[in-house]
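Records of this kind hold a single protein each, on a pair of labelled lines. With that in mind, the following record should read easily:
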Amino acid sequence: MEARQTQAEKEVTRLSELWRENGPPDAWFCYHPYYKAPDLVGPSLCRDFGLPYITAEASYSHRRNKGLWEGIQARTLDAVNIAAVNLCFTGRDERGLRAAAPLARFERLPAFIDPTAFLSNHPTPRERSLVTVAMMRPGDKLSSYQALAEALGLLIHHDWTLDIVGDGPARPEVEAMFSRFPPDRICWHGLKNTDEIAAILSTASIYVWPGHGEAYGLAYLEAQASGLPVVAEEIAGVPEVVIDSRTGILTPAGDTAAYAAAIERLLLSEPARMQMATEAREFAGVERSIEKAASRLDEILARYLGERR
């Protein structure tokens, strides 16, 4: 931490000299300051030059107020307090910040994507075709794969297939989880680029991913923009990007039977699946588009920065 602080002080000096010579910017924007990544440069410069300070997706956790992290969290909280505005992507983050900094200024900027690649494909869903897109690594991702495999184990009597897009160090463990199913049920795609993922999503009928520990999960928005209803758990930030009973089904966290039942419902009811598919494409493709987010951000900046813009 001392080495990082020294580097930060050098950067403050460098930028100060540059701005005195050429003029400062209109504002300082910091994305995702939290206990592992505090902003060691911006607050000092903003105080010295009288600049508005803006954060996006800042987070604060009382659980981290221990040892080294306690001092770093104090710096993050200071940044939140001096900010002209703090942009929050989720209600969970906003509630945590408000509890720690009740006098700070907050605005919601819902999670968004550029849906172009996903809207460019016309949905042509294969009957009872499930799909998921996720990295394969220890922790929450592996936990979600385990929950998905267990739920599908309860649905083996139905005629479904599953496309899995993703790779990573835990692939052997993931493959072992799904080894109980006939090989023709599972298609392993590995890593794919955005256009390839969009093409795969466009031919599936239901997106399945429990979402353990997801901050919100942009993959859910990509799936919905592709015209897929989502089946996920009502956990962490998932409800921020999936609207229960409108664009998908959210089930209680850790309830494998409920999760399996939600998948089964959409497998067996094409009218319900199609209704959610239509709503999902509208929601992610329009309501959560980059254009919509840009309009919202412009509104916020106009309110808090005024004539500086």
